[in-house]
Structures are given as C-alpha cells and as structure tokens.
C-alpha cells in the first residue's frame, strides 16, 4: 500500500507525473533519479537533459528560477521539448539547490493549461524539501541510475512529503474500508491503535459544517473518474481548529466503474495566515491607509519589511515606461547598493533602466512574486542586492503592474511559508496604496497649482515696513481651500492688508475665494475707504446666489503716519505685538460674514501703530482644531509673538505656524512689521480750474514747487509731462481736475486726477497731418514709468521721473535753472 500511495505522491498538486533529475558526476547533464505517477514514456520525459542544450529543465537549473510552461510555451523549445507531451498538458521545472549548491531539478507534468498560485506555492515548498533530502545524501538519488530503472523505493519524494506533513489514504468504495498512513492519522489526531479502518472514525473529528462537502465526494450518482480537491477543518482535542486540504482521485476497474479513491491530506495552515501574520498585515494595512503621498507609502513599506524580515536591503520603485523610478531605499546610503545602481544615481535616488535587469523585467512581465535563492545566476544588478536571497515583488493594481519591491539578504535565506504569505499580501496592499498615493499626489499638485494661481505669487516691497505671508493647505480632502490673503499698495503711501476664509474646502470655495479677493483688490485700488470696500464685497457675494459665505479682516495702513483703519466681517480679531514685546487683540467692532445680509454695515476702528509694531492677521486653522479650543490657540500665538524676535519677519511667521504636520483645516497667516518711513515723501497739490490759462497756472505751480524742492535739472521734462496730462484731462473729461506732486527719494511723481473712468489710450498711428494724439507718446518718452489707475469713480494718470536734488536747495548744476511756469 505504501508504494501504491507513493505512486500518487503528488495528487495534492493534481500532477500526472513527477520526476527528480540530479546533476551528473561530471556536471554536464541532469540525469533522472526518481519518478512518481504515470509512465514516464507516456509524457516523453528523457532519462537526461544536457545542460548545454535549451530546455525548460536546463533553463530552470541554470537560472535558479522555476519554469512554468504551457503547451504553447513548450512548442517554442522545438525538439528540446518533451516529445510526447499531449497538447493539453503543462510542465513545471523547479530548481533544487541548498546552501548555494545546485543539485538538480524537480519536473512536474500537470493535466491542464498552466499551474495556479496554490499549486506553484505547494510545489516550491515540495522542491525545498526534496533539495534538503538530496543534500542529506539520500541513497536513492545516486547519479547514473534512477528509481524508475531500479524499481527501488521512492524515498526522496516520499520523505519530502513526510516533512510537508502530507498523509495518504486509499478508500475502497464497495466496502467503505480505508487504509491510512501514520501521517494522516497524526494530522487528524488519531493514534494508530485507535484507528479501526472506518471512514466514520475519521469524519468524527471533522467540523460539522464541513461534513456535507466531504460526503459529496462519494455520493452515489456523483462518482466520476478524475480528481477533486477541497479544504476542511478538524477540531483537535485541545479545541483548536486545524485546516486540512484533501486532494483525491477516483480510479476505475477494467470497464471504467469507480472502484477506489486515492487521496492525500495535507496541513493547509500554510495557506491560512497565522495570527501573527494577520496582525502584521493588519498593521501594514492601517499604516498604508494613513500614507497620503508616494513618499509616505515608501517609508511605510521599508519599515514594514526591513526589520521584521531581517532583510539587508529594501528598494521600492515605480514603473514608468521602460525605467524603474526608485522612491525609497533602505539603507539610504549610496555605498550600500550595487555598482550598477550607483552608476544610475541621478538625484536623490537612482533611475534604473529595465533592460539592464532582464530577470526583473521578466518577473514584472509575468506579474508574479519570485523568491530567488543564492547562486541563482542573476545579473550583477540583482545578484549584488541579495547574495543570500532576493524577493522580487511586482506590485499589482487595477489589472497592471505599477511598480516593484525588492527585498535582499546577504546571508543565505530560506523563504518559509509565512514569509511567502506575508510578501504576497504586502505586494497587493502596496500596489493599491501606490495607485492611491499617485492619485493623491496628482490631486495635490492640481490643488497646489490652483491655490498658487489664486493667491499672490509674491508680496510687494513696502516703504516703511515688511510684509510676509504663509499658507498651508489642509491634510484631508481636496487640498484647495477658501483661505486667502493679499497686500495691496495704495496711493499716497497707504497699503491695504486683507485676510479671509471662504466656508468649506472645495473647488467652489476656491472659486469664490478668487472672485472675492479680486473684487476687494479692485475696490481698494479705486480708492474706497475700508468700510466701503467691505460693504461692496458683501453685496457682490450676496448677488452671486451661492450658499457659501466668507469672513475677512481688512486693514488700511498709512505707512507715513502709522495710522491704521480696521474693518472686520465675522473674522478673528487682529493681533498686535508692540515694540516692548507685549501683545493684544485689537478690539474691532465686527459685522456679519460676507454673503449673509445684503444691507449689513461694517464699522471702522482706528488704531495708531508705533514703529516696531507687528500686525498679525490669521485664519482659524492656525488657532483652532478638534483638540485645540480657539481661546487657547489665540493665547499660544500671542505667547509665540511675545517671545519671538521680530527683526526677521519670515522666521517669526514660521515660529507662529509651529508644528502643523497634521491639520484638518487650511491655514493663512499675514504679518506686517511696521518700521515707519525714515525719509517721508514731500507732497504738494493744486486744484486745476477750468480756465483758458489753466495749463499755464499748473506749470507755474509746478515750477515753484520744483524750485522749493531743489529740482532743476529735470524741470523741463516734468513741466512737459504736467502740460500734457493736464491738457488731456481738461479736453477729454468733465468735472474737477487735480494735480498732485510727490517727491520720494529720487523719484518725482506727477499725478493728474479727473472724474472720467475711461482710461487714456495711446494712438496706434500718428501721421504728419494729425493735430493731436501725440500727448501720451510724449509722456511715455519723458517718463521713467507711467500708468493709470481708477479712483473713486474717476481715474488718475500718473508719471514718475528720476530726479537729482539736494535738501540744501542746490542740485549741483550751475545756478538754479528754475522756471516760472508762465508757459
């Protein structure tokens, strides 16, 4: 009975034939040592395979990797393929090796189109056990002769099954008698003395829920020749459940009537993860769930595999076309990696072409995990990664391979079943996490680009102060929010600062934010006072018919005098840090958020700032969260303001942000350190009356002013600009006209304001016969820069000229060179 059962030794893998080939004494060929199953001649297996030839068996031996061949793949080998293998059969060749030595190959013939994952897994474990028996010097594998020729016991195959805890039995269908070996009885926890040869004795240990499936195998009317396999559970005397797997074949008599059932029962715990293995996978899954970016995923994977598996190297790479883009290496030091990897080190990590790693390229093409032992004949780029063993884990996601994880060991490493299960589970989890992280990174990039386009790219340089801003997006959801800030230079040394927050985190909130920011900037530039600017923005948002609302704080600051006017619409109060280090919340009478009431009124609060004062505007994401009450958050910011050195405004802003690595809301922060102007601008103004000689009076006023400011060298240029701008205002507009002169440093600004909102336009073409249209061309030629801005229902056309002057009344020229402005 023992010999008969051994002949069906690989029923568990539903194999038709199994053979062991070992290396000959001269090392030139692989010779047949043992077979089990059907007649060898039926499947065309030769007695030897030359190593110099090309065949699945020789390829498996040379590469150290299993070769799984369907009938189509076998046809590609031509005459080196098994000559009599039927078209519907598959062949597996598994290398046998131990401690870096190549001992032979296990060949399995399977009736079907390819081997599934469970069959491959079992056969690889089976090959490991056969290799261990060969290394131990089992007599049956003496080179030059095989069990098939000698008729001796199949000790290598049988002994390997014993080590895998595989038991066998034969059931006579007519009598119900069953012959079971000691391994089977051990698996079901029955002592040999207690077994009476009855099926019922074995079934008594089976979990009741699994009995119907077992009984269906031998139900009358269901008996058909061929194989069946299933998994079932037994309950051990200790109460513990054990998973077993049954594989059986029904054999018939001479006329084909079912006569007996041959079966194997194996411990299937290697197919079922252990509690420790489940906890590892659960921890990995939980960690990957919190990994947002590709870099986060990479760090989680290296931490999950390096220490628990005792690996020496772990690499994670994404697949982009025909290249591997490495995202993580552990250890990160360049010297720890093979020379080929170091040569491809472009920036932070190497960028490796797949064509340089054919073994890896083949594994990715197959999309199946490969566990490569030492001495497998790998190319240097992989062999140097794991001299003792290398795990190649293709990372599948959405039906394709998105990357690969490589785990290498320096010392010889045996891959136990638990590791195989862990690595398989890891590959699936990491592949999905990488796809999710890629989507997140793309979304993050889109959100960042959108946010960057809606917020100021840079803040303007201010006379008498320094403004800095910080923005951090939320860490959950769409990372584009409604927080915004702006710094708006205004005429006459004024500047407007605004910070706000539109409700929600969405593209809609970002859209509203962009519209409100643009509207507030337009209203401010037009010259409206702060309360009017906020009222206009409120009516605009109400008119948009959106369900979203916005809060904001608007400040207009006179940089010369330090006077500030605050308006608050449902937003947090501004904070001030005084020069002595004390802080306070500015008591600003607030109004409702924008977009709530169309007729809402917003009061202004005036506050004087001393030089050295730091004005802080912020949004609630900085001072409030699920674990931080608003009042506590404001106190924290005030404490940081008081303790910090305001001389470096950028560093001060970073200190106020603190540790915000995890945040549920976006954060905006706007700081202005008011220093006061060291050199204040000098101003003079003139109301231009609509009289025939109005331009003459404007020139006279300008000439007197320039002489008093000790500006003579550029006086003619300035007078020409004044003449043209005043003339254009009088000729093309109605209502009052005003001329303003401002001297700030070496810049003289001429500004002419009128009540027409229509901006001046340069003529496209001026010919010799034209009587007008040259004024703006002259202004452009005489000015360093010029332009037009809307102000209070009208406009202001301005020109700046670089001048040289001395406060003592001379400019270094001969004489004063003054002009009386009489025209």
From TrEMBL:
Residue intervals of the PAC domain: 228-280
Keyword Cell membrane set for record: no
Xref: InterPro entries: Bact_Sigma-Reg, GAF, GAF-like_dom_sf, HATPase_C_sf, HATPase_dom, PAC, PAS, PAS-assoc_C
Organism for this UniProt entry: Streptomyces milbemycinicus
Taxonomy of the source species: Bacteria, Bacillati, Actinomycetota, Actinomycetes, Kitasatosporales
Pfam families linked: GAF (PF01590), GAF_2 (PF13185), HATPase_c_2 (PF13581), PAS_3 (PF08447), SpoIIE (PF07228)
UniProt KW Hydrolase keyword: yes
PROSITE patterns from the UniProt entry: PAC (PS50113)
Protein name: SpoIIE family protein phosphatase
Top-level lineage group: Bacteria
